[in-house]
Amino acid sequence: MVVRSKKKSRKMHGYRNRGWGSIGQHRKSGSRGGRGAVGMHKHKWSWTIKYFRDWYGKEGFTPRSPEHIVETNIINLKQLDELATKLITSNKAVYENGQIIVDLSSMGITKIVGTGKINHPVKVIVYKSSENAKKKIIKAGGTVVQLYGDS
């Protein structure tokens, strides 16, 4: 490729300021309207609208109540029934009034939901439980002890 040695930009590769004088013309950040994102909401607004329409604004939401921040570990009745069966077969089941005691709160499980069915009478100690899970456990001859919360 041939180099065009006569063009202006070739001539302006001088020692220091490329033909723009010694006192800051075309040199500092003032020539570009400030450094970085300066002026995006002021003198560079038309550029922002044209090329970066979503530079400003919000998207989505951040939940702030601690109830959403706490991680919920959920177990259903089918898994609870399997757990009770394992306790019985390994002879680790603790009985109270004919019910197997299952302390889900010590296992790190915070809620029990009513998916599936349970065949063993169990006494479940848990933080929260759904209404459907409560009904099914009581129907099977068990009880639910909630440490706090209604649902």
Name the features.
single chain; 151 residues; alpha/beta; Ribosomal Protein L15, Chain: K, domain 2; four-stranded mixed sheet; 7 strands; rod-shaped
Summarize the structure.
The chain has 151 residues and is of the alpha/beta class. It is 25% helix and 16% strand.
Notes on the protein architecture:
It holds the Pfam family Ribosomal_L27A. By secondary structure, the chain is of the alpha/beta class. It contains 5 helices and 7 strands; from the N terminus they run αααβαβββββαβ. It folds into 2 domains: 28-60, no CATH class; 71-146, Ribosomal Protein L15, Chain: K, domain 2. A hairpin with a 2-residue loop joins strand 2 and strand 3. It is rod-shaped and about 100 Å long. The chain starts with 7 loop residues before the first helix and ends in a 5-residue tail after the last strand.
